[in-house]
Amino acid sequence: MTHDTEPVRAAEEPPRLVYRLCSLDDWQAAATVGVFLGSDQDRADGFIHLSGADQVPETAGRHYAGVRPLMLLTVDARRVDGEVRWEESRGGALFPHLYGTIPLEAVLAAYRLAEDRAGRLMVPPLMTMPGDLGP
């Protein structure tokens, strides 16, 4: 009888922090009702499009080039209402999709992105895991 001596490795935990780009109007509407329900495109697709930290700049350039002012929401994936699934999308990359809504309690920060003198968005350094936020 042989025994497998290879150590069992835990599956890599997905990033706890995910990001949502949106117009200032969409963010103000969410703040008024207490929940971000997504855009018309999100509702048509059946989920809210999110981005990982490393995906935000490209997403901003591809999908929000003409949207100003543009907001960047930092979202705690453990506090959303629904399920975040990392699914294949652009170029085979995995993107977080939320099948649910984002209550304001899940939004840890909301930044209005500034532009440099050439009109390029200045995205701050982003994290994937927060400090100690509790459950």
Automatic annotation (TrEMBL):
Pfam families associated with the record: DUF952
UniProt xrefs under Gene3D superfamilies: Protein of unknown function DUF952 (3.20.170.20)
InterPro entries for this protein: DUF952
Protein name listed in UniProt: Uncharacterized protein (DUF952 family)
Species the sequence originates in: Roseospira visakhapatnamensis
